[in-house]
Amino acid sequence: MAPFERSRTIRSSLADVRHRVISALSTRSTSWSAKVPTVSFTFDDFPRTAMTAGAALLKNYGARGTYYTAMGLVNTRNGLGEHFTLGDLHFLHEEGHEVGSHTFTHVGCRAISHSRFAGETERGRSAIRDLAGFQDSGNFAYPFGQVTWRIKRTVGPTFTSCRSTFSGLNGPQVDLNLLRGNALYGDVDRLDHAKQLIVQAKNSQSWLIFYTHDVRPNPSPFGCTPSLLESVIKFAVQRGCRILTVREALQECQPSPARNLSHGNE
Hints:
Blueprint: H1 3-24, E1 29-32, E2 38-45, H2 48-59, E3 66-69, E4 77-78, E5 81-82, H3 86-94, E6 98-101, H4 114-132, E7 139-141, H5 149-154, E8 161-163, E9 173-175, E10 182-183, H6 191-204, E11 207-212, H7 226-238, E12 242-243, H8 246-250, E13 253-255
Parallel strand pairs: 2-3, 2-11, 2-12, 3-6, 7-8, 10-11
Antiparallel strand pairs: 1-9, 1-13, 4-5
Helix pairs in contact: 2-7, 6-7
């Protein structure tokens, strides 16, 4: 094995161990009680195309999405394209989509101190309320998927739920401090993997969450094409899955017996 490949394998193995450890610590568990497979489509940051293309495709199937919003990105542009406006937020809210939070400046928890990150989450929620004029849903997504044990333990319980980028299905037990999400990136050549996840959710009657960013014909490495998104939505519906927002799906959960988030559950 070449040195580069060996190094990449080691990093991948370490990341896998880290994910398993964080997944096991400071859980806030609830039970997935629905008897129908469920799929949620979530959009992070969010680029305008997630609304102009993404919301339109969902509407064609009578569905809505969850938009994890970093208010510091309003009226900006970056590699994901043009970002949302306040008018876009009002449109999504009025159309029944869910507006969650994603910090204010879209900063990862490993880039700043714990106290500053906690302040970022509070600032992000306040900005939605103060600038958009309505309350966020109470659901949060960790920027860049970065989550530490300490952030999970302390920031997690301040939200109804926190979505990660740890892959997999949610159910029969759901960790509200670490909802599992699966990337939906690229074009229709990535469709088979998404279909496999939907079939798994169907067979286990679980809750599957997808996440992406921009939705355009030539997406960024962190976005998808309209063709891929529509194909995945269509396949989920054909397989008998409900498409719900994160907020709606959480209504299908039943509280599990209380678990200690301090040392007893670590």
